[in-house]
């Protein structure tokens, strides 16, 4: 065998990769539309087109639809994490969180002291904690989003969801706090995204194992 040769194996299934990019695009557009809903800086009277008078309604509708898509994709992604056979490498990464040696090895990697990865599986302990934090933020933003939805749309789906999620509104202490949690969760996700992109690029540059493109091709390369 040639020195430093690698063999490929599938780390992420097709569904995992699809849902990753669906969530990424949904989050991107939800953040943009959410900021516009909070501060509608485009004035309808500034346009000669009558459609501009419904701009806020169009953006709100798109925001709501993308929000429910994000909830559905996140629920299915959670199902895959726990029950998909191809997600075994992700589940096994949870053990790294309790492994002190894995933390030390990974910190050495990030401080350019060593090249030994911390722990086995798809994620090192820092990655697992970061993705777990993102999941918590998505749960908070989804719950608060549903509460804000049924407090505006009282019929149809809103009437169905209200008794199911009223507990979260009560737990938060009222609708104003729900809106505040929705905004804080948004900022948490905004802070996560650039750090996530930077660390993925860092890993891809430092290690020739397909770090970035594994979420496109699904393949990871391991040295023989």
Question: Can you describe what's shown?
Answer:
This protein has 224 residues and is mainly alpha-helical. The chain has one domain (7-223): Up-down Bundle (Fumarate Reductase Cytochrome B subunit), CATH 1.20.950. It is built from 8 helices and 2 strands, in the order βααααααααβ. Strands 1-2 form a two-stranded antiparallel sheet. It starts with 5 loop residues before the first strand and ends with a strand.
Offer a concise description of the structure:
By secondary structure, the chain is mainly alpha-helical. It has a single domain (7-223), classed as Transmembrane di-heme cytochromes, Chain C (Fumarate Reductase Cytochrome B subunit, Up-down Bundle), CATH 1.20.950.
Q: In what range is the share of β-strand residues?
A: under 5%
Multimer state: single chain
Content-based structural category? mainly alpha
CATH architecture: Up-down Bundle
For the record, the CATH class is Mainly Alpha
Radius of gyration: 21 Å
Residue-averaged pLDDT: 86
- Number of helices, counting only DSSP H or I runs of 4 residues or more: 8
- Taking the alpha carbons of the first and last residues, their distance comes to 9 Å
How do the strands of the widest beta sheet line up side by side?
1-2
CATH superfamily: Transmembrane di-heme cytochromes, Chain C
Task: Compute the number of strand runs.
Answer: 2
CATH topology: Fumarate Reductase Cytochrome B subunit
Q: Topology as H/E string?
A: EHHHHHHHHE
Question: Helical residue percent?
Answer: 55-70%
Transmembrane segments: 21-42, 62-83, 128-150, 187-205
Subcellular location: Cell membrane
Protein name: Ni/Fe-hydrogenase, b-type cytochrome subunit
InterPro entries: Cyt_b561_bac/Ni-Hgenase, Di-haem_cyt_TM, Hydrogenase_cytochrome, Ni-dep_Hydgase_cyt-B
């Amino acid at each position: 065998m040639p020195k430093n040769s690698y063999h490929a194996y599938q780390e992420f299934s097709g569904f995992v990769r699809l849902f990753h990019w669906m969530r990424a695009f949904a989050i991107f557009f939800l953040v943009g539309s959410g900021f516009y809903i909070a501060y509608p800086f485009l004035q309808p009277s500034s346009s000669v087109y009558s459609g501009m008078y419904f701009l806020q309604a169009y953006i709100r509708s798109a925001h709501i639809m993308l929000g429910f898509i994000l909830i559905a994709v996140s629920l299915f992604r959670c199902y895959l994490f726990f029950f998909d056979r191809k997600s075994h490498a992700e589940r096994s990464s949870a053990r790294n969180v309790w492994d002190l040696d894995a933390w030390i090895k990974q910190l050495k990697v990030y401080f350019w002291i060593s090249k030994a990865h911390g722990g086995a599986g798809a994620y090192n302990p820092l990655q697992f904690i970061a993705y777990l934090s993102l999941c918590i933020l998505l749960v908070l933003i989804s719950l608060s989003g549903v509460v804000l939805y049924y407090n505006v749309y009282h019929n149809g789906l809103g009437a169905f969801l209200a008794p199911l999620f009223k507990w979260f509104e009560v737990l938060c202490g009222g609708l104003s706090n729900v809106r505040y949690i929705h905004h804080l969760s948004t900022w948490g996700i905004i802070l996560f995204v650039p750090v996530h992109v930077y660390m993925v690029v860092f890993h891809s540059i430092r290690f020739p194992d397909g770090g970035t493109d594994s979420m496109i091709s699904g393949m990871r390369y391991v040295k023989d």
